[in-house]
Design a protein that fits this description.
Blueprint: H1 3-22, E1 28-31, E2 34-37, E3 40-41, E4 47-48, E5 51-52, E6 59-61, H2 88-104, E7 109-113, H3 141-157, E8 162-167, H4 177-194, E9 200-205, H5 221-230, E10 239-241, H6 252-257, E11 261-264, H7 271-281, E12 292-296, H8 308-314, E13 320-321, H9 347-360
Amino acid sequence: MNRLVLASLMALIIGTTAFAQQKRNTRVEIRGDKFYINGTPTYEGRTWKGHEIEGLLMNSRMVQGIFDDLNPETMGKWKYPDTGKWDPDRNTDEFIQNMENWKSHGMLSFTINLQGGSPEGYSRQQPWHNSAFTEKGELRPDFIARLEKILDKADELGMVPIVGFFYFGQDHRLEDEKAVINGVNNAMDWLHEKAYRNILVEINNECNIRYSHEILQPERVHELIKLAREKEKNGYSYYVSTSYGGGFVPLPNVVQTADFLLLHGNGVSDPDRIVAMVEETREVEGYRPMPILFNEDDHFDFDKDWNNFIAAVSAYASWGYFDFRMKDEGFEEGYQSVPVDWDIRSERKKGFFRLMKEITGY
């Protein structure tokens, strides 16, 4: 066998192996206002107390799955109670260990963010440095390696992560608008390189809350949605959107550009207002049949007949749980507060998963 033939054969073998490594198990589609996984609507045929559940995507805010703190002055804040030290790999590993249990209760999606969220729940000052992006918008390999583990496990389990890029407490870590655009391009290129087909993209969490860069603010964020949507490889492009702060109805520029719409229920204590938000969203200029998801809501009352979760479902909108460790609460509380107990131990967590399991029929 001459060298040219041998080289061609080796190239074919390498290429075939690479393709095999990228073969994915889970594919999400949006058809009208419903989500489909591998060609079948989610929660196929399911109704609950007269409400249609088929096509929804129940979720939870789990944004700290790849968290780390690059600020030596604050990294000591996140010590595990049993070891007295912080460990980002332990955090990701324990996240992954619990994913199958989450799904067994009907949770098909979760939001994870490349810049996390406030590890204290709500914080105006955020001196910690938690960003998968460098100041130029390049991807940090250690953060991305942890993300890959989570997304690979989600693909294996048939879950659909919502991958957020930017967070208002950390977007200033990118030096300018060019870096933000670089960040979107690099993150999208990486998703395409890994050939994930089970991902929804959220450009930034709550675009109308204190962002440093204008392109991440409400008037211009649709430019980044468009940029991400137009990224295509092998005929495939990702579904993209952004979210707003609690109680806010999406603006026309986002409604007209996005593939699905993200609402937040924070600050909305009346479940009737949750229904009204969904109805108002469907009236925004440019709306056409598309999924509406709450992917953050810090209201609970899961034992009551009428709560924000049930209200969203009654309006045919998916709902997402947001929980943080409140003052003087134990380690088992909250999915946003670092260090995180990713298990289902607290009464709040149990209440959410119990109601979700009932609603989805899992």
